[in-house]
Amino acid sequence: MLSASLLTPVLYGSSAFLSAFAAISIIARRGSGLKQPPAANTSDLYGDTLIFLIRDGAMVDANFPGQRFLTHFGAKGLDLDALSRGLHSAFDDAASLLDTNGPKTDRHILSRDGMFQFIAEHAAGTLRLKIQSRDAARLQAEDIHRLSAMDAELETLRETADLAPYLVWRETRDGTPIWVNRAYLEAVRQTFGDKRATQWPLPRLFPDLKPGGRTRLTLPNDANAPDNWFDITSIPIGRDTLFTAYDANATVRAETQLNELMQTLTKTFAQLNTGLAVFDKSRNLALFNPALTELTRLPVDFLASRPSLIEVLDKLRETRAIPEPRDYHAWRKSISDLESAAKDGNYCETWSLAGNLTYRVTGRPHPDGAIAFLFEDISAEMSLTRQFRQEIELSQALLDNMEDATALFSPTGILLQTNDAYRNLWCEDADSLLTETSIVDESRVWHDRCLPTPVWGDLREFALDAEDRVEWNAHIILTDGRVVDCRFLPITGGGTQIIFHLERTNETHQDEQFRHAG
Prior knowledge:
CATH topology of the largest domain: Beta-Lactamase
Shape: rod-shaped
CATH architecture of the largest domain: 2-Layer Sandwich
Number of strands: 20
Number of domains: 4
Largest sheet: 5 strands, antiparallel
CATH class of the largest domain: Alpha Beta
Strand content: 15-25%
Structural class: alpha+beta
Number of helices: 18
């Protein structure tokens, strides 16, 4: 079995063939001491021609240049396989050239680059093969410095190809690999085994590969092994094709994860009650969910056609799913304002529509220049809010109709509501109730306007006590001498209600009696 190091010359195809042939020709010529090209009929004597004799499927003899040529392709003697590897690197259909059972006619074939000629001659059961340059004079004029430069360049190319982390190879029109780099050879060894990696021509790693453009294919492997993906690019070179294959496993995994994420997001968006419309940086609709069609009544085929933002808003206006502007020009301007506001991330409006519908529309920017709009149906929320407001207004009106001053506190002691009588009694204005006030703050007001009493301390403990509580009464005297009867009532939920009843004085009773007597 040949080692990988012996296969190295084969990996570089026509360059290796040319280098081997040129080196042998120059060494033979310099050894003979020739200064000028010999005559054409004497070229075989001086190494310009490689000669091989094949009989019964085996190589039986070769001239000295031919033997030296074989050593460049891993042979240690008369090795027909080494010759086959050398021919595959430079000639098309090399297997038929060595077929001793084929037609017994002489054949003349040119190499793929047109620099060499192959001659097959049959005589007495023996196949005589000759390989020679078509331009012997040019080869004879080569000097050792030119050959040294060629070898240095070839060595650089070999090292470059050896260190390349991707597969590079060259194929003929029939798909036969004629040049591969070491990464390709290692892939063959891993896929087909060590033995197959030493047989030339090497197998095709991608049997379904066709020249032209870019494609992504996977290497054949075991059923339980994960797929090994490659991105392959082909470049025509003469009658051959050069292929490069990059490891695409990370890309495939990323794309798979992205697709799974998109499927998850799509399913999530489909279950949202909020309408979603995402416009790309060109302001065309890129993504929407079913809730958008339900809320806006826009046709699915219209949304699927990827309309622009302006077209979507025009359609919303036609279906009356957008507030009707005072005039068309102002509405068109509001569209541009909407887009710029959403781009800055601060667009949020409430659209009141016909049929007691209310939508909250929010714009959110994305880093790539896209804009996402969220359409939320808040009709029920707004209806509930209006109902609460009506109930609060009704309860406030009822409280204001009471003659006695009253105040309501939450379980945590926060002032919730008062009436007109309370504000008149304690000299407070309505604006003071806009800020959050606690029972501690209010008790300070009461303390300042009353004679000293322990009632307010007991009240604070009562209001903030979470245990079972019972109603209790107390009398306080205002600084102007008036007497107030206070009732402290626990209410549902842990809150507290305080009722201040201003008692009438004796003078007031007498005045009333006189009026009734009169």
